Amino acid sequence: VEKVQEQLAGLRIARRCAPSKEPAYLLDMDTSTAAQPGSGRFVAVSCSNRSVRVYDREALRFLREYRGRPGALSGVRFAHTCDSMVFSACSQGTLGCWDVRSASQEPVQVFSGYPSNVFISFDVSCSDLVVCAGTEKVEKDTFLVFWDARGVTDCASATKEPLGVYSESHNDDITKVCFHPVKPNLVASGSTDGLVNVFDINKDNEDDALISTCNSDSSVSSLGWSGEGYKQVYCTTHDEGFCWWDTAQLDTEEPITLLHVLDARESVCAKNHSLHYLVGGLYHEQAGKLFLVGGTSTGNIHLVSCGTDGLSLVGTLCGGHSAAVRSFCWSPTDESLLTGGEDAQLLLWKPGAVERSLAKQASLKISSSVQKRVRVHNTSLKSRKK
């Protein structure tokens, strides 16, 4: 574990992307898995200007951009079994899937929701069989919508209707959806209602599918899986809290909560650089260790180690970004880290790297009207039947 912490603290900038003609916040990112050894990999970034940009993963060379969809694009995910297919959700009630090898702006597949759906989160199962998206609350309704994702590459420009929805388990915006890394039937969802739910979608109905409900007592901003066999679920909250649960303890007398930190900013002491926010978590499988990524408004990146006894600072990456970091992607194969932020920069960090790229501009911080809307958390959750 100490060696891994040293490696993380020793990350240095290896590449940065060329400045874009239209700077935008880099809000979310994902990398493709190489289909075969030696083949190129891609990184896709969803931006505040309602576009998805695709880059070469190693050189950070810009390849293409998808835009022109009605509504704001939210999130980005590559298919797991086909490294050229990238998905993004749209606020106008659709999900698009593009083939990054094609110059066409048109999605190869559109997943349509129901008329009132505003999608703000989604994920693709590890088998690529199912896509699930979470909606904003409209009147009294909030939904998890599911589609059959099979045959995406075969039916050009076809539109797919939903398989069905879950509608009873959250009562506010569903901000995050995250499938289990190795079990395609398990999916977790997080909401501004404070709840993190875990479902087994192989079950016949929503009541039976709901395996566990964990309460973060705040609005969920990110979530993920960790631990041996990925039996643990964690989340960060919009007020910089952190919760960590062990679903393996559900049928035992042991407490399910591993750690609950109300405000990570107060519990993580960083010399000269205070922690201003959390971005999300990364589980280091080799070390069996969960880490959080956070930072400062001036662009410093803090790497934080998670233990049942609390959070501790591992290291700080400086000199890369000039504004808040909003997204990152960890690669266990070469132990590198991609980061993107409000300064419109996409950076690749590697252990002991020396930057061979454009001269750093004095300040790349951009002005933007993009503000993440977060409702005040309502702690009086509706009564729920188990």
TrEMBL record:
Residues in WD repeats: 167-209, 318-350
Repeat recorded as keyword: yes
Keyword terms, alphabetized: Repeat, WD repeat
Family annotation (InterPro entries): WD40/YVTN_repeat-like_dom_sf, WD40_repeat_dom_sf, WD40_rpt, WDR89
PROSITE patterns (UniProt xref): WD_REPEATS_2, WD_REPEATS_REGION
SUPFAM superfamilies, per the entry: WD40 repeat-like (SSF50978)
Transmembrane segments: none
Keyword check for Repeat: yes
Protein name, entry field: WD repeat-containing protein 89
Organism: Oxylabes madagascariensis (white-throated Oxylabes)
